[in-house]
Structure formats: C-alpha cells, structure tokens
Amino acid sequence: MTRMPPAALRRIALAASLGLSALLSPLVVAQEPIRIAFIDPQSGSFAATGNSAYRVLSFAAEHYYNSRGGVLGGRRLEVVALDNKAAVADAQLQLRRAISEGMPFVISGQSSAVASALSSGIERHNERNPESRVLFLNYAAVDPVLTEDACSFWHFRFDAHADMKMAVMADHIAANPAITRVYVIGQDYSFGQAVGAAAARLMPARRADLQLVGNELHPIGQVKDFTPYISKIVASGANAVVTGNWGADMVALARGIADAGLDLPVYTFYAAYDGITRTLGEAGRNRIHMIHNDHANPFPSDERRDFTRAFEAAHPDLNVTQPRLVNTLMMLVQAMEAAGSSDPLQVALALEDSRMTTMTGEQIWMRPQDHQLFAPLHVSVHTDEGIEFDLDRSGFGLRTVHTTPLEATLTPSSCQMQRPAP
Fold first, then answer.
1. pTM score, whole prediction
2. Are 196 and 215 a contacting pair, CB within 8 Å?
3. Which residues contact 75 (CB under 8 A, 6 or more apart)?
4. By residue range, what is the domain housing residue 279?
C-alpha cells in the first residue's frame, strides 16, 4: 500500500474542512440573531420611561418569537438597549455604535428632538452607505413634522402624531359644555410646541366659546416644583388643563396638581405608568384623562390579558406601559417574513401599506405615503372603578370612556418622500 506524502494529506484535510464550512455557513448565518438597537434613555431624569419601554420590547421579543423558534427560519431577536440620556448628542453617538455593530433596525421614541436627529442621521448614512442601511421605527415621538415636511423613507411612526391626538382630544373636550376656558402647558421643545400650536388651532374651531386662557412652555426635564405654573393656571380661571408632558415632567406636574387640590379635568398624552398613576392616586380620580392608541380597561381580548399577566409576573415592579411597542415589533416581524429577509430596504417596502390585527384585536394600518400608522384612538380616565389591571400597583388605572375609529383619525400629510433608487 502506497503511503501518501504528508503535504498531500494536509491538502485533502484542508479541502474537506473548507467543504464542510461551505455546507455549514448558510446554517450559521441563518442562526445569527437579528439585533435591534433600542436607543432611549436608560439613565437620567427620563430613565424610568426608557427602561420600562425596553423591558416591554424585550419581553415581547421573547414571548412571541424567541420562545417559539425565532423568525426567518430560526433567527432570534436580540434587543440591545443603548442609553441616549434623552439627549440628541448621545442619541447620535449611539446611532453610530448601532451602525458600526451591524444592527439593521433602530427603535426609539422618547423625545421628538431625538427622533428628528435619528431620522436625518439615518437618511444621510443610508444615502452614503447603501451596503449597511438602517431602518428607523419610531414608537412614540409624535411631532407631526416627522411624517410631514421632514418625512423620510427610512422612518416609520407607530404612534398617532400630536395633531391626530389633539383633534380627538378637542372633540372630547368640546362635547363637555361645562368646559369653556382651557389652559395648555407643555415642555419647551418641538413636541410641546406642536401640542400648543394644535390646541390653539383646534380648540376654538370645535366650539366658538371655547377659549385658550394660557399656552405655557417650561424647560424640559428641569422643573422640580410646578407651584408657580399651578398658580398661573388658577389665576387664569381655567376650567380644564391640557398637557403633553411625559416622564419626570408629567410626574412633577401631576404632583403639583394633586397638592394644589385643583378640581378641574386635566387632559393628557402620557399621565400614567412609571410612578405617575401612584402619584395621582385618589386626587386624580375621574379627573385625569389620557388619549392613547391602546384600549384600556376593560381589556377587549384574552390575548392582551394573557400578555399583561405574563409580563407582570416576570416584572412585578412594572406594567405594560406602551403596548404600541408590541405593535411595532409585530409589524416589523410581519414585514421581515413577507420580505423573506432582514434587509432594511426589503423590510421597508414590505411595511408600506401593511395592515395588522393587534393583540387587543384592533386593526392598524401603515400609510405608504408618509409612513404614518393609523389606529383607533381612545380617551381613558384615571379611576379605581372597573379596573381589571391597575397601574403602579396603586389600585388605580385607566378605563376607556371614548373611542374614535381608525377611519375618523385619518389626516392629510404634506410629505413629499424621496425614495431610494431601485
């Protein structure tokens, strides 16, 4: 028997190794996780809001997908929290990190100023680097401009914008003849300014005798004691307050309203969860109203009920603060499966004009013209009556008192979208 030279044996072994690697490489690629950059505050004044949102998103990824074999034939979803401290500069740094680490999807929502910076940054990056594109999924930044004059093909918004919400809120307020004088207070940045402008335009248009007796802005994240602002509200003779405040600013404003014992309705965008409901407690009963695109108590579906129970069992200190994060993830996965790919361009094309049934059983639609989501909008009241799931373990929660169907929330858009070359 002829013995083969050692060099020949090494060449055969190398060829066999390369052949095996070639056979295995598609399997290895298929099993690589799809990494999602969650760029939101994880420290600082607004950490509670960003951290609870991260936990909801991560839990949804495990609950709906990773525990059931993943997506796209077995790939796990990995949500990576990147702390932007609710600051534009930090968000831009974290975006660069996400791009450098090959994360194809960015989810963010806390602060319209941050969302604007991310949208324009991703637009520039994708134009210059088509081989490493990124898709931006905005779950909460609601300055209308993001899907209007500053719209981007690479940006999709999964929340109703401020004008859409204010239109429903104005209808609800105008239906109460006891309200004639409205005071608006908000954070001094793009979203707070948009809320004030929408209120000034829409309130008087709904009812001729409905007056705005104040339209105040305060520094975002800096006011610890709202007593001077509460004094202005009292002095104005207002019999209703409208605010777009969120996070720590909503907590502080709510505490000021409760301490002052103001006996007037307060209409809000974000007056629940993350300590706000507990702060309001009895003082907010049947007084604090919130507009949102999630149906509150009573829950309309067993799926929503089961998801909430499972999340709260895993996180006893938290609630499902922003269910639209679950909608965001579900529509992203639906688009990936439809495209058969996690490529941002193919996923974006699949997201356009997509429809989905949420875990509450409601239909939602992503309009292709401007990448703005449309869904039923609900007005809820802070109460301890008829509450199946309370918030902040306080005994109080939100009960739905009014619903506007999807079709009635449709608004025109000024978006002139520049689409990528085929």
1. 0.87
2. yes
3. 30, 31, 32, 33, 34, 342
4. 163-292+376-408
